[in-house]
Amino acid sequence: MNIIVVDDHPVVRQGICLILAAEADMQVTGQAGCMDEALALLRQQQFDVAVLDINLPGRNGLEALADMQRASPGLPILVFSVHSEEHLAMRALKNGANGFLNKEHAPEELVKAIRKLAQGGTYVSPRLAEWLALEVSGRRRNLPHECLSDREYQVMCQLASGKSVSQVAESLHRSPNTISTYRARILSKMGMRNNAELTLYAINNRLVSSPSVSSE
Questions:
Q1: Quick one: which of 93, 181, 179, 186 has its CA closest to 136?
Q2: Interval 121-146: pLDDT, tens
Q3: Residue 42 in contact with residue 4, Cβ under 8 Å?
Q4: CA–CA gap between residue 93 and residue 208 (Å, rounded)
Q5: What residues does 123 pair with on adjacent strands?
Q6: Which of the 8 DSSP states describes residue 26?
Q7: Which of 13, 24, 57, 166 has the most CB atoms lying inside 10 A of its own CB?
Q8: How far is it, in rounded angstroms, from Cα 126 to Cα 166?
Q9: How many Å apart are CA 73 and CA 55, to the nearest integer?
């Protein structure tokens, strides 16, 4: 299996390479630190599975899933994220991912997930499968952030992680005024008053780790 790993942290990419090097039928033949690099590789080479981190500089992985599929039609994509499965997996799967795995899982789970995707299947952990079953049955109470669009969710997570409006604007290549509009919309939809409440909510729901809070 030829695998492409898309993650902006070289240490994470190297770790995945070491894990997969122990498997006789797997090899990492492409590495990218951003989505533009990934798309260039996908147009040049054929891969059997992509391992993708959603949080990439400059371009959100959720939004780029469609671009990856256009660059390499039929390529199975495993989202490999630090974010909790319950809150991001549904968005990833709806945007075209074939599987979702939290980075807290053991290395052998990564190997298992890649094999499942390479065989044409979809991978979700037992915990996520249970959560999805509750979602389908209608027995799960929706949380405030689930009413957000993908872009609003992305902005919310960045604000909650301690980034200022200006920093979020730079990261997403948008104007500060646009991000301020998103911020106001997010606060309104979620019934919150400020970034501090967003941060507390995001930490309690495992959407972000402990941030360094901005003064903006």
A1: 93
A2: 999 887 777 767 766 665 656 778 88
A3: yes
A4: 20
A5: 99
A6: -
A7: 13
A8: 39
A9: 22
Question: Residue 11 CB: number of other CB atoms within 10 A?
Answer: 8
- Tokens (6 digits) for 80: 């490999």
Tokens of 214: 């901005």
CA distance 101 to 89: 8
Residues contacting 123, CB < 8 A, separation 6+: 78, 98, 99, 100, 101, 112, 113, 116, 117
* Tokens of residue 33, six digits: 């630190």
d(Cα 28, Cα 1) in Å, to the nearest integer? Answer: 8
Tokens of 42: 């996908």
144-193, pLDDT tens digit by residue?
A: 888 888 888 889 988 998 899 999 998 888 899 999 999 999 999 999 99
The residue behind tokens 């390499």 is 72
Q: What angle do CA 136, 137, 142 make, to 5 degrees?
A: 70
**What Å distances lie between residue 70 and 4, 24, 100, 121, 168, CA to CA?**
16, 30, 20, 20, 27
